[in-house]
Design a protein that fits this description.
Blueprint lengths: L12 H10 L3 H8 L3 H8 L7 H10 L4 H5 L8 E5 L9 E7 L2 E6 L14 E3 L5 H6 L13 E5 L6 E5 L9 H5 L6 E5 L3 H9 L5 E7 L19 E14 L1 H4 L6 H5 L4 E2 L6 H12 L17 H9 L5 E5 H7 L2 E14 L7 H10 L2 H9 L11 E3 H9 L18
Parallel strand pairs: 1-3, 6-7, 6-8, 10-11
Antiparallel strand pairs: 1-5, 2-3, 2-4, 4-5, 8-12, 9-11, 9-12, 9-13
Helix pairs in contact: 2-3, 2-4, 12-13
Length: 414
């Protein structure tokens, strides 16, 4: 019979947080405590509770008391975390998530999710130097990793899937992840696909949302695609069309991007590295239009919905975004390309509990139904695996994205 540890039973997050704070792997903790790695893993996942002997051995290895590790009043200690982006002030709110045997911190820039405040799971206790901030400026795929930060957790840290990408449907993963046993949290970092691949290559996220395939699934060149490695897991997420989004009033006078300059319309652009920006550049180059002569070309929005919102608010007249974004804001839409959003999981994290949880929910009926309920989304291939090594070879000599054949007319949404 298993002995009672004398401490409140919990879901194992106290042990996991204490282990990560010490910088221990599960194997190192097991060897130091004289127990099996499987026992450490099952305790952290909440599948089993430790005996008194095991609880004492684990706490001793971590140089903490049993109450600090397993009790309801567990001591929350400062941990070291690798930031996904710069954090320039002490006391900044971050989403704190464990990845492997370390922590990552996602800055909560404005602290909101558009409808309310976003919950933070940590506060920074130091600040980046100005030299460190300046040294990190550059393109997403050449930018160095940010300096490690000290973070004070707010409450216990639970296993969390960290995903980066600009598809606004990615937050839908949160509900099914929370229903797993044991449950997983979700931390989403909105950014373009090339930046997401860069973060994945540095081990800062579990999965990168990126458009690696064009119309009908053919493979095409993508910034940062050379970061794909054999052993990376690539899973299909969803598909939608991308094109020119415009306020309904001037749409009748615009037959394509070449007419934007002639009509004197102001565009809202995406950040460098974004597929939407590359699509605009390709269309302008095909029509012989100098981007510098296009009003608003140097403006930047950080997502499809943000582009549509700026147009709907009258801050711009046109931009490149997804059809679902145009539908959401009742804007006119001219399709230029078909996009397939895939999720890339680095090989080093492919067997992690978070990656396994992602694979489970991507195959769930609930997620597919949710994606299918969004106008403009196609979820028919959600959860299907794609060979990363084969895909990487195809991407090397693939053609750039091009307009859908026979798709040149406007669609107007009420």
């Amino acid at each position: 019979m298993q002995e009672d540890a004398g401490a409140d039973r919990n879901d194992g997050t106290g042990l996991r947080s204490a282990r990560l704070a010490r910088g221990f792997s599960q194997q190192r903790l097991a060897e130091t405590a004289g127990v099996s790695r499987q026992l450490v893993s099952s305790t952290e996942s909440g599948k089993s509770g430790p005996s008194l002997r095991v609880a004492l051995a684990l706490a001793r290895a971590l140089e903490l008391s049993v109450e600090e590790v397993f009790g309801s009043a567990a001591l929350v200690r400062t941990v070291s975390a690798r930031p996904i982006a710069p954090v320039d002030a002490s006391g900044s709110r971050v989403a704190l998530a464990p990845i492997g045997d370390t922590f990552v911190a996602l800055p909560l820039a404005d602290g909101t999710n558009g409808a309310g405040f976003t919950a933070a799971s940590g506060l920074t206790v130091d600040a980046d130097s100005r030299e460190a901030l300046n040294s990190g400026r550059g393109s997403p795929d050449t930018r160095p990793s940010w300096p490690v930060r000290s973070v004070q957790p707010i409450g216990p840290q639970r296993p969390t899937l960290v995903v980066a990408g600009d598809d606004p449907a990615l937050p839908l993963l949160e509900v099914p992840l929370g229903l797993l046993d044991p449950p997983l949290g979700l931390a989403w970092w909105p950014c373009c696909g090339s930046e997401a691949l860069g973060l994945a290559s540095r081990g800062l996220i579990h999965a990168a949302g990126v458009c690696l395939r064009g119309q009908s699934g053919e493979h095409r060149t993508c910034p940062g695609a050379d970061l794909l490695q054999p052993g990376d897991v690539v899973i299909a997420f969803c598909s939608w069309r991308e094109g020119l989004v415009l306020r309904p009033e001037p749409a009748a006078d615009v037959a394509g991007v070449a007419d934007l300059q002639r009509a004197g319309l102001r565009v809202v652009n995406r950040e460098p590295g974004a597929d939407a920006r590359r699509l605009l550049d390709t269309e302008l180059a095909d029509k012989g239009v100098d981007p510098r002569q296009l009003s608003g070309y140097d403006t930047q929005a950080t997502g499809h919905l943000q582009v549509a919102a700026a147009i709907a608010a009258g801050l711009a007249d046109a931009g490149i975004a997804s059809e679902p974004a145009a539908l959401a804001y009742g804007l006119a839409f001219m399709p230029l390309a078909s996009e397939h959003v895939d999720l890339v999981v680095p090989a080093a994290l492919a067997i992690s509990p978070e990656a396994r949880g992602l694979l489970t929910v991507l195959s769930s009926r609930w997620l597919r139904d949710q994606l299918a309920s969004l106008p403009g989304y196609d979820a028919s291939h959600c959860g299907e695996r794609i060979g990363a090594a084969w895909l990487r070879r195809r991407l090397t000599n693939a053609a750039p994205p091009h307009a859908d054949e026979g798709q040149s007319s406007w669609r107007r949404y009420p």
